[in-house]
């Protein structure tokens, strides 16, 4: 394994060299250093966010979005576009590192999700995201991440206990991945800048009972793909929000190393402690959002947001039960096949 890592690590190092060459040209050659220096707080925040991006199924925007929107009180649309931009560097860097390490990935479902995202994310950017008010963007983020955090707080031992992956068949995995990429790319990633990785991860661990060592790298790669796609689509069509570039200049050199570092460190300390901390942060950001927006939401809005979390959790439980049913059916079919194929051999042995 060490030999394979050494053999392919040059690809990641080449990527890093290319990125930092471009970044240095921007800040020194084109004189953008004052802008990068002025936005140093987001670089500090993304030092934590990039670690989470590489070690959990949550993109760096999981930290970047609430910091910009809730702490710095910037527009939610800026937080969304910044998430795309910073993850296009951090998650891509982590993905190249993952592939260089030859880590196992759920390829069939990942390929399907990439195809679905290729269609769903641009459609969401053009036809859904422009019509979502800033408050609703905050609420979608808060509800989805809080429900994801609560799922891990009460199912973490079960999720962390999976080994390998239940493979039904590649065509089935590919189709499921397509629907995940299409729907979550259009309805979640295009609105908040993050989330498609969490949806794919949830399907892998609840539906396919996938090992975290497979599910998390797969989620990192789909978020990298969707982020790069989002940046390309927005730059070519709708344009990025003002302020994204300056914050990106400050954060990009941090996440380029931070996300791969998360991939490496979590292999040493285990994923459960990191997932537990991030799950708590997901719940706390919901409480923070409700506190900051209580004047706009009122009691009714806060209650509806809480009920939305309950609906998400019910959806997770339904997915988990469906996964259990599929695994049971698959195991029964395997037993039946094994029994059927062994019968002729028994008869032949008896005859002899």
Automatic annotation (TrEMBL):
Annotated organism of origin: Rheinheimera nanhaiensis E407-8
Family under the similarity heading: Belongs to the 4-toluene sulfonate uptake permease (TSUP) (TC 2.A.102) family.
Pfam families: TauE (PF01925)
Origin superkingdom: Bacteria
CC per GO annotation: plasma membrane
UniProt keyword annotations, A-Z: Cell membrane, Membrane, Transmembrane, Transmembrane helix
Protein name in the entry: Probable membrane transporter protein
Membrane topology, as annotated: Multi-pass membrane protein
Cross-referenced InterPro entries: TM_pro_TauE-like
Subcellular location: Cell membrane; Membrane
Main subcellular location: membrane
Membrane-crossing segments per the record: 12-33, 39-72, 84-100, 106-128, 135-154, 174-207, 214-236, 248-268, 275-291, 297-316
């Amino acid at each position: 394994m060490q030999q394979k890592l050494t053999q392919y690590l040059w690809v990641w190092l080449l990527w890093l060299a290319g990125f930092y060459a471009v970044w240095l040209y921007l800040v020194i050659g084109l004189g953008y250093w004052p802008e990068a220096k002025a936005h140093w707080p987001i670089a500090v925040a993304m030092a934590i966010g990039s670690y989470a991006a590489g070690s959990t199924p949550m993109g760096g925007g999981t930290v970047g979005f609430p910091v910009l929107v809730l702490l710095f009180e910037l527009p939610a649309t800026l937080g969304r576009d910044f998430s795309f931009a910073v993850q296009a560097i951090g998650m891509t860097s982590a993905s190249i590192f993952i592939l260089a390490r030859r880590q196992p990935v759920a390829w069939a479902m990942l390929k399907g999700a990439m195809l679905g995202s290729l269609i769903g994310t641009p459609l969401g950017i053009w036809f859904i995201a422009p019509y979502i008010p800033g408050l609703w963007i905050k609420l979608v983020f808060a509800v989805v991440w809080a429900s994801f955090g609560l799922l891990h707080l009460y199912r973490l031992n079960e999720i962390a206990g999976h080994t390998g992956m239940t493979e039904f068949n590649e065509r089935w995995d590919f189709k499921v991945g397509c629907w995940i990429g299409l729907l979550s790319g259009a309805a979640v990633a295009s609105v908040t800048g993050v989330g498609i990785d969490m949806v794919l991860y949830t399907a892998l661990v609840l539906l396919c009972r996938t090992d975290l060592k497979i599910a998390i790298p797969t989620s990192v790669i789909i978020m990298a793909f969707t982020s790069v796609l989002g940046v390309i689509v927005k730059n070519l069509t709708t344009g990025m929000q003002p302020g994204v570039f300056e914050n990106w200049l400050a954060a990009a050199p941090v996440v380029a190393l931070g996300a791969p570092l998360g991939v490496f460190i979590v292999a040493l300390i285990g994923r459960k402690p990191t997932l537990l901390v991030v799950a708590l942060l997901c719940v706390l950001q919901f409480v923070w959002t409700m506190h900051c927006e209580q004047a706009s939401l009122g009691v009714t809005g806060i209650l509806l947001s809480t009920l939305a979390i309950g609906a998400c959790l019910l959806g997770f439980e339904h997915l988990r039960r469906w996964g259990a049913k599929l695994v049971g059916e698959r195991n029964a079919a395997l037993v039946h096949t094994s029994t059927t194929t062994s019968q002729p051999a028994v008869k032949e042995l008896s005859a002899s």
